[in-house]
Amino acid sequence: xxxxxxxxxxxxxxxxxxxxxxxxxxxxxxxxxxxxxxxxxxxxxxxxxxxxxxxxxxxxxxxxxxxxxxxxxxxxxxxxxxxxxxxxxxxxxxxxxxxxxxxxxxxxxxxxxxxxxxxxxxxxxxxxxxxxxxxxxxxxxxxxxxxxxxxxxxxxxxxxxxxxxxxxxxxxxxxxxxxxxxxxxxxxxxxxxxxxxxxxxxxxxxxxxxxxxxxxxxxxxxxxxxxxxxxxxxxxxxxxxxxxxxxxxxxxxxxxxxxxxxxxxxxxxxxxxxxxxxxxxxxxxxxxxxxxxxxxxxxxxxxxxxxxxxxxxxxxxxxxxxxxxxxxxxxxxxxxxxxxxxxxxxxxxxxxxxxxxxxxxxxxxxxxxxxxxxxxxxxxxxxxxxxx
Amino acid sequence: xxxxxxxxxxxxxxxxxxxxxxxxxxxxxxxxxxxxxxxxxxxxxxxxxxxxxxxxxxxxxxxxxxxxxxxxxxxxxxxxxxxxxxxxxxxxxxxxxxxxxxxxxxxxxxxxxxxxxxxxxxxxxxxxxxxxxxxxxxxxxxxxxxxxxxxxxxxxxxxxxxxxxxxxxxxxxxxxxxxxxxxxxxxxxxxxxxxxxxxxxxxxxxxxxxxxxxxxxxxxxxxxxxxxxxxxxxxxxxxxxxxxxxxxxxxxxxxxxxxxxxxxxxxxxxxxxxxxxxxxxxxxxxxxxxxxxxxxxxxxxxxxxxxxxxxxxxxxxxxxxxxxxxxxxxxxxxxxxxxxxxxxxxxxxxxxxxxxxxxxxxxxxxxxxxxxxxxxxxxxxxxxxxxxxxxxxxxxxxxxxxxxxxxxxxxxxxxxxxxxxxxxxxxxxxxxxxxxxxxxxxxxxxxxxxxxxxxxxxxxxxxxxxxxxxxxxxxxxxxxxxxxxxxxxxxxxxxxxxxxxxxxxxxxxxxxxxx
Amino acid sequence: xxxxxxxxxxxxxxxxxxxxxxxxxxxxxxxxxxxxxxxxxxxxxxxxxxxxxxxxxxxxxxxxxxxxxxxxxxxxxxxxxxxxxxxxxxxxxxxxxxxxxxxxxxxxxxxxxxxxxxxxxxxxxxxxxxxxxxxxxxxxxxxxxxxxxxxxxxxxxxxxxxxxxxxxxxxxxxxxxxxxxxxxxxxxxxxxxxxxxxxxxxxxxxxxxxxxxxxxxxxxxxxxxxxxxxxxxxxxxxxxxxxxxxxxxxxxxxxxxxxxxxxxxxxxxxxxxxxxxxxxxxxxxxxxxxxxxxxxxxxxxxxxxxxxxxxxxxxxxxxxxxxxxxxxxxxxxxxxxxxxxxxxxxxxxxxxxxxxxxxxxxxxxxxxxxxxxxxxxxxxxxxxxxxxxxxxxxxxxxxxxxxxxxxxxxxxxxxxxxxxxxxxxxxxxxxxxxxxxxxxxxxxx
Amino acid sequence: xxxxxxxxxxxxxxxxxxxxxxxxxxxxxxxxxxxxxxxxxxxxxxxxxxxxxxxxxxxxxxxxxxxxxxxxxxxxxxxxxxxxxxxxxxxxxxxxxxxxxxxxxxxxxxxxxxxxxxxxxxxxxxxxxxxxxxxxxxxxxxxxxxxxxxxxxxxxxxxxxxxxxxxxxxxxxxxxxxxxxxxxxxxxxxxxxxxxxxxxxxxxxxxxxxxxxxxxxxxxxxxxxxxxxxxxxxxxxxxxxxxxxxxxxxxxxx
Lengths: 388, 515, 445, 254
Fold this sequence. Notes:
The structure holds 4 protein chains of 4 kinds. By secondary structure, chain B is mainly alpha-helical. Chain B has helices spanning 5-31, 35-38, 42-56, 58-66, 71-94, 102-126, 134-145, 148-153, 162-183, 194-227, 234-260, 271-295, 302-325, 361-383, 385-395, 397-402, 407-429, 439-454, 459-479, 483-486, 490-504, and strands at residues 340-343, 346-347, 353-354, 357-360. Chain D is α/β, with parallel strands linked by helices. The radius of gyration of chain D is 18 Å and the shape is globular. Chains A and D meet through helix 9, helix 10, helix 16 and helix 17 of A and helix 3, helix 4 and helix 6 of D.
């Protein structure tokens, strides 16, 4: 503890925490950039990372929606699905405007064009849903979005002829690279780049005046409105924005980058709940936190499929090996649930929150003001006033 | 249903106009000078007579003669019913079977609903009329009767009371029904002579399963009414309830057989109290540890916290069960050894008949269990001190606290009881549906629909909501024009209603104002 | 070549009769194994949304096969014994995961062959990759017609994987249309005219339903297809709908799996729709798990069901052993996919032995193509492959690298709580055990 | 003490006008044809027994509720039925009876919300400078980086007042500014009110205890059963019989 204090003060005198924080960030990014070049790493790890990046995008954008704007949506996965499915259907069937008698054949639409269309579709639906949700708060909003995403899932599953039902719908591949290793390399960088871009976009929004307004709305919608914040506009805006981000990410991920086809099971509430859990564990109200939470949780869940426990002191199991393998199976998720619940209860801002705040100078400032307040003698006033 | 051509034409061309004429010319005359009739303008009387006569013939005329007070509302309603009925009957004949009902259901209906929902309430406000429920009524009406709703609500902005809602709702339902009929005339919902039996059968199915559903929903609504919290662990509690019952019965039967040496299988009814007891404890503990701090102001954004924490709890329960019990479907013995109750076919004449109606024995039993438990709960809430205390707390925490009720205990109690009810319905259903760890998901979705429909926090609402959902699902699956999709969309029907209620009347049908 | 096979299988039987839990130890006892072992990947669904129950059984069978092989001194290549080592991967029933796992198999675990796969979606998504990497593969449960079909075929609009097709992938499970054929033939023999098909909207239900529907209509029967979502519990409304149809159906065919099918069948029986005097109840292989079946469908007596795999009364010793062991583990009859998975490992091992290499994919494939083995499900061989490349006109593409005659039979219970080992085989006639093509409810043969 | 007349020269245009504003909840007539106008910087007290419709009227003016009938004009713009944020932009700011500080945002952020909402293009630096001035005036400048949920009730009230100034509205409505505030802070508030008034704004403070209102206000509006029963100079109002028996008889109506 003492040592830590000394270290802390050293940092504060030295480069300062914020700078150090940026440094750490840069190092992390560099690590991820270097990673695929590590020959010892198999493509499988890369694949795990790729899906990790994808879910990082999902839960950090959800963190903006739920954590910062306080819009507690369970429809996030559905929006992702809309993006992917729209892209896939467009690329397969093209568009036909019966009334105008004009039709755009699938061959004229490039994979990327399809992705863009998917993104727009997700945004459009986000607009409608956001508008519908204006009247609903908290639990009602959650319930409505659950209903929405279930409806979407059931439709995708049932309209077998159009969506391929549970066989899933395969999107037009974004990259055509024969060599598996090279392909995986490119996909890795593509997804990582996407994550960086999305995080940057989310970060910019969160720290712009808009972000401020969103937080104000989260705290108290009426008050915010009374202070001149156009709640309607920003509420809808945040829905459209996040829907487009996840729609885009989804369309890309399923264009044979992370996966070769999207299946309705991906849209089950279970999947959504995983995203929420990641965000909660990482810290719902910090984008980086949520992203990191998602990435780490996914990695751990993956790594925990098979836990090899090496026995100390040359002990051996009955068949003579010095290690035995534990396959936690569902216990992983059970454990995950426990972690989530306890995080919520005892570290509401997520397990990474302390680290993140430590790096932001905010809490230095806080400490100072706290000390000042203690010196301040309106303690009595506070107690008295709080009795009202 | 499609009434027979000759009958229809006979009425449309001859009887209707005849009595309409009577209503039009005679009624105002004889009603003239009678106090209760003079409150209406002559034109109103004329139109009322016209419609009444056309719709109900002599009955209508008689009605308006003996009960002039009814003239306005009755004639309005009749008018609407007529328009829809005739139009749909004509449609059935004119339009070819593969007329896309989507056209109305997905385009025209919602369009008019949206328009009405947008303009009418404003109009009400401009006229300083009481605009309570105007929105709902407008939307319903717009969907049901399209532009006519403007004619109905624009000129004379009537006070929207329950009959209005029910009438319009019924009309909407009728609209869908008629469209289904058009889509697929061989649809058993419309094709005589089956229709009568079939609809009764489906309604019965709906009511039976509905009562079972509501038992679970009641728990949800109880928790909400006291704590203002929607439990997202409800489905999983329902699921573990089933499992507790299952394992208890298995062991009990085994050991009893051991003792007595004869092969005994314990009736699943005994599983219910066991499951109830265990889950009650679980619920109480969870509430103490994780929900209590909410009410001590240790947590901001309470509702979100509640959602997440219960959600995580459910997550944990589901996977723990999966790890312990495995994915293999389980089921207990039946409650009663009667496979089904059957009401035999009754012939009116050689082509018209009614029945048979079947109800599966165990379901009937489970329904009874459900109803008994719900009424027991109601009795408990009304009569016992604790029950009253619970209600008081749900009314007004502070006031309750002042009168010496300990709100903290009430919270714990409410959550524990709510969870217990979920577990009980689980234990009551495991003899009927086979059990897997993810069985809660579909069920809980349904009970959200139910509680919102009935109004979060209202126990009778939950019962009604359950029955409505049951019927909607049964009729939806049963009457969907495309049999191959009807079943697959079964849940979807309830979900659609759910979404609509949330948007139009978030307080539900019986609910208090939302917290 | 043949001799080795024989030796191997005989030894295997001996080993199985010897105490099984100790098999590994015993193997160490009397076999000299080479340093490095042969790795075979087993791709099975072990978590939701996958069909977990199936996955559990399959991984059990795969490991079991490995134990038996090792008990018989593993795979001998140039008179060196290589132990077989199994790597199980969880596909979660999702194509995405499946691809990832296969990748791990190939690049991390460096498996020399792959088996397993329950969901067709996973099979479709992974077979291209397996082929590109030249990993000899024997799928043991996906039914979709497009799995293992040669490269000429396309599925949902995607171009062929490569010019000469999916050549490394074999299949010992039937294609759904092979099964459909048997069921439909049987029903048509009984002269049904009005059929209701209830199918789950998944990659199993829909193609199967489409196939059977086509066959029925070709034979002039009227068919109503009803799709249901997996996880639905209450089927009474839709069943009432069937009940209300003007003419009662002659047969209700259930193409739904898992607990959903149990719910459906039970409610069907409780409502007295089927099995009844007018309506035949036809469910599917899930009914073969008699313990589960009777627990969940107490009223399901006299339901007929199609089953893949040799019929119990004709079980080979291998099958009997396997069944006994399976029963010990799961207290239930061994399902076909477990048998198939078990056999698949043997086929691979045998192929490697004959190819004289555990790494040369092409050679192994060539060897497997000329497989001729008697295992738990009967005699294995592959009619069409590079050894016999041109499929005659009208032969469907999936016959490529397809075990041509997995035994598909119709069976029927005629006693409450009957073990499926005693259930009557009613079709095809050659297999009939109780000499009747259909046992009417209430009667017994 | 500056007189309104002198102020009028310096002040920006200011004209608030209510015509027959009514609000009905179901059967209850909460606000009943209220009409009054504010045309010059004034300290207006609005009083009335509990349930007289004061808060409802505030909500109507600030756009939280739509009037059932009647119109409200502010500086020539019709604002009734407009959402609160429009009304605020139009230049009418209000505080809440129970303080509505944005809990988990720092005091500075609380100040910036209205600032940026009011002129999004405005440079943060200037706005922050302004915020500091205001906070200083309100004696809570030292709490800038404090999360506002950590503030005392009184400080929250001050913060709310501060936020209003960031909007620099023409009319300010204070709902129960003195309720449950430590005496020491009450002075600050009074002082604030005067300062704002001197900057040429009209301030309407609502309270159900006449005492606090009397010494401050230059004009009193008395509500009873949702209707204005008196409107004029405090002294005149004090002796108005209607007001008296409204207050004497107010026990039975809440």
